[in-house]
Design brief:
- The chain has 351 residues and is mainly alpha-helical.
- The protein has a domain at 129-295 and 327-333: Orthogonal Bundle (MetI-like fold).
- The protein is built from 13 helices and 8 strands.
- The strands form 4 sheets. The protein has a two-stranded antiparallel sheet.
- Helix 12 (298-304) packs antiparallel against helix 13.
- The longest helix is centred in the middle third of the chain and has 37 residues, at 122-158.
Length: 351
């Protein structure tokens, strides 16, 4: 009988895989160790944490550095730069020198990235917009993951009519074009005089909860389908059958045998889903059916800067850069988590 020899097959095993480093270590500890050795993923995590920290420090920046309220118009305001007083909205602009043009980047604490067409500090608004975009992106991703996980566990474990009903409901949501469904829901809720009402809970039409719930709903099927498939496979495994033979209840089987084995899939999907929901929120806000005034998000700031692309492009470029950096960091982090949590990534082929 042939004997499998890793070295002969061109496969390299670390000390972890040969038994030298796995004694007393849980799979989660091994995953954390592999993630800690992935410098690119750690750099992406640091970048994302930095973006979150800077965004949530927006009130400190606006109050102590910019000394401005980024939600109030400052059309007739002035600012002192290097001892010189300048108008926030300067007279003349463009080739004809007509109208008013917002002050450009000063690279000082006051109007660091310039002003928009309402005289509002762009840097402060970008930070405040980051708070809204991140809150909605992270919140809607968590909501979608939680709802999808519950449905997937129930449908995949019990099967039969339960699986058929839940899966057809997910297919119904899946059948609608993503942005068309989100736009339809947002239009209905934002134009309602009472906003969103669920029982005794009432949410105003300009609340961040409206886009958060809408985006969370439309992305439930995207997380539900891979988790359901994994649950269907797990319920046929030997360790589940052994637990059933020992008299384990359905709840115990779901929460102690199945859930821990699908948790890694949810963790890997979360950074990718947060990146996707941030992009969706920005798109909806750009179309004026996401975050509503006086609040701001990266999408609304890009919309504000659309008319200033030729004179003050930083109004639109700054939030665009923040979106690119955030989504890039989350995608790289998601790849790193996948490599760390996938046991097959422990075996590396030469070449």
């Amino acid at each position: 009988m042939a004997v499998f020899e890793p070295e002969a097959e061109g496969i390299v095993l670390d000390a972890e895989e040969t038994g030298g480093g796995i004694v007393g270590r849980s799979p989660w500890a091994l995953a954390g160790r592999r993630l800690a050795r992935n410098r690119i993923a750690l750099a992406a995590l640091v970048l994302f944490v930095l973006i979150v920290a800077v965004s949530f420090a927006a009130p400190l920046y606006a109050k102590h550095l910019a000394h401005t309220n980024p939600f109030e118009s400052n059309i007739s305001g002035t600012v002192t730069i290097d001892g010189k007083t300048r108008q926030v909205l300067e007279q003349g602009g463009g080739k004809l020198g007509l109208g008013e043009t917002p002050i450009g980047p000063t690279w000082h604490s006051h109007y660091l990235l310039g002003a928009d067409n309402q005289g509002r500090d762009v840097a402060a608004r970008v930070l405040y917009g980051g708070r809204s975009s991140l809150l909605i992106g992270i919140g809607s991703a968590l909501m979608a993951a939680f709802v999808a996980l519950i449905f997937a566990l129930v449908a995949g474990f019990f099967g039969g009519w339960t699986d058929a009903i839940i899966s057809r409901l997910m297919d119904l949501i899946w059948a609608f074009p993503l942005y068309l469904l989100a736009i339809s829901l947002a239009t209905v809720l934002l134009t309602s005089p009472h906003g969103l009402t669920i029982g005794f809970i009432q949410v105003a039409a300009d609340s961040l909860w409206i886009p958060l719930v809408i985006i969370g709903i439309v992305y439930v099927p995207y997380i539900y389908r891979p988790i359901r498939g994994q649950v269907l496979s797990l319920r046929e495994k030997e360790f589940v059958e052994a637990a059933i033979a020992q008299g384990a209840s359905n709840l115990r089987l779901i929460f102690t045998e199945v859930l821990p084995n699908v948790a890694s899939t949810v963790i890997v999907l979360m950074p990718l889903m947060i990146a996707t929901t941030i992009l969706t929120e920005s798109a909806l806000s750009y179309l004026s059916i996401g975050v509503q005034a006086p609040k701001a998000s990266w999408g609304t700031i890009i919309q504000d800067g659309q008319e200033l692309l030729y004179t003050r492009p930083w109004v639109a470029i700054a939030p665009g850069i923040m979106i690119v950096l955030t989504v890039l960091a989350l995608n790289i982090l998601g790849d790193g988590l996948r490599d760390a949590l996938d046991p097959r990534s422990k075996v590396r082929v030469k070449g």
